[in-house]
Design goal:
Rossmann fold; alpha/beta; 11 helices; single chain; binds S-adenosylmethionine
Length: 241
């Protein structure tokens, strides 16, 4: 497994367009100090800290990867948000929570990593009726035939869902899709820039870590080709019927 904490050392959001998605969550949910939100696959806890800091809402943030759990907990402590943010170590495929307890739920950049159908089913299950669910993910602009795994790695293993097909999977989870937002291409560049800085530092540090720098640069190059040929990033806003 790559050292994600090191790869993402220079960024707090781990997803293209994440800050914009957080703005969409804020304007859709309009949380108050009485709101309880769920953040599935919270990464470094930046969305939870931003929303709790701005609205004083309570947030349960679920993550599986220990370095990000520790980072999120330290961030909540640093920003004096420990009373508002609870970090849970668990899987978004099976949440350790009762049905219908959250006013809203979101998963930024995670459903297809967590497991698309399981993640949506769980978000739907634990959210109150009428509550909003917001997710962002990769959607396919053009669907190729079979992609070679040698050339396209993780992309070749992905189930290629177009914007409409992705919305269909959300609706099949008992949710009504209210809005779809396609992120600008620049969101990818903003996402890659700090990673490429980490690669540059690894290349020029003493001793240089050429292998690590190469791994980052080739991962970014693969994503760049994928964006040019096949994929976009989208945010969906849905309501639990
Ligand atoms: C692309 S990152 C998104 C993180 C964060 N939401 C953001 O946008 O900054 C995906 C996250 O999903 C987490 N993850 C992967 N599988 C998971 C699972 N089954 N349950 C919870 N989190 C998971 C990873 O550890 C990683 O932090």
């Amino acid at each position: 497994m790559p050292d994600y904490a090191r790869v993402y050392a220079r960024q707090e959001y781990l997803t293209p367009g994440a800050a914009e998605t957080v703005d969409i969550i804020a304007e859709t949910v309009q949380p108050t100090e009485r709101s309880l939100l769920l953040d599935v696959a919270c990464g470094k806890g930046e969305a939870a800290a931003t929303l709790a800091g701005r609205f004083a809402c309570r947030i349960a943030a679920v993550e599986l990867y220990d370095p990000f759990i520790h980072h999120s907990a330290a961030k909540a402590w640093f920003f004096n948000l420990r009373d508002l943010i609870t970090i849970l170590r668990g899987s978004g495929r099976r949440l350790p929570v009762r049905d219908g307890v959250f006013d809203a739920g979101y998963c930024i950049g995670g459903p297809s990593i967590v497991g698309l159908k399981d993640c949506l089913r769980e978000l739907s299950r634990v959210t109150k009726r009428g509550g909003h669910i917001i997710v962002s993910d990769i959607v396919w602009r053009t669907k190729p035939g079979t992609l070679s795994e040698d050339e396209w790695k993780w992309l070749a293993r992905m189930e290629p869902a177009s914007l409409d097909e992705y919305a269909g999977v959300i609706e099949a989870s008992g949710l009504r899709v209210d809005r779809r937002h396609m992120h600008e291409r620049g969101a990818w560049d903003d996402y890659w820039r700090p990673m490429l800085e980490v690669a540059e530092e690894a290349m020029t540090s003493q001793p240089a870590d050429i292998g690590f720098a190469d791994d980052i640069e080739s991962a970014v190059a693969l994503e760049r080709r994928a964006v040019e040929s096949y994929i976009n990033y989208a945010t969906f806003v849905a309501t639990k019927a």
